Amino acid sequence: ERALTTTRDVAWRMERSVSTLLKLARLESESSAPHTWLGAATLLHQALAEARSVADPGHVFELDIDEDLEILGGESELTSLFSNLLSNAVRYTAPPGTITVVLAEADEAGAHFSVSDTGIGIAEGDIPRLTERFYRVDIGRSRASGGTGLGLSIVKHAIERHDAALSITSTLGEGSTFRCEFPLHRVRRGPPAQVVAA
Predict the structure, then answer these.
(1) Could you give the CA distance from residue 96 to residue 119 in angstroms, rounded to a whole number?
(2) What is the CA radius of gyration of the chain?
């Protein structure tokens, strides 16, 4: 029975890795697709609903979302960016931890999206390598949580496609913040997003 459980777990991890690789390949193949103006808050609320569905009831979500912001971009890329950063925060924050999500206009500098958590944090030496494909800070931790080492590579790809910049700050044992800065030419104000209760 133990061997069957191990085999099942390995198969599940392989399936997840293949699925993530296919998603990354699909995003890269869409690199020439034209970008359109998208309701960023709508996509973010969808990603939040997905994150909440796998979060522990003890997780606390604090939101500061500008419902009017639009970003010139690709829908699948932005959705993957939001989803991956949120899922990482949930995965590496033990309840009753707090996950803070901000989507806001920056003063004359476009807009920023950030996800902060009160999780286990990341060692300073690991931060520069986080967006490398298959790089995992703690292989045992990633294996236990189902990580593939590809989520932040997808985030990096999406960031680059939107002329944006990613900054990561973290303190071991206290938490992390992932912040994406979108330039002014990628941001405008549109009609308020229609928020659907999760």
Answers:
(1) 10
(2) 17
Residue-by-residue DSSP string for 106-151? -TTS-EEEEEEE-SS---GGGGGGTTSTT--S-HHHHHHHT--S-H
Place of tokens 């419902």: 67
Q: CA 64 to CA 86: how far, in whole Å?
A: 14
Phi (first) and psi of residue 138, to 5 degrees? -135, 105
Local mean pLDDT, 10-residue blocks, the chain (198 residues): 60 51 56 85 96 95 96 93 95 95 87 96 88 61 50 89 95 95 94 56
Q: How many residues does the chain have?
A: 198
Host H or E run for residue 77: helix 75-91
The CB-side HSE value for 139 (13 A sphere, CA atoms) comes to 2
Give bridge partners of residue 70 from the DSSP assignment. 39, 188
Three-class secondary structure of residue 70 per DSSP? strand
Q: Report the distance separating Cα 84 and Cα 50, nearest Å.
A: 11
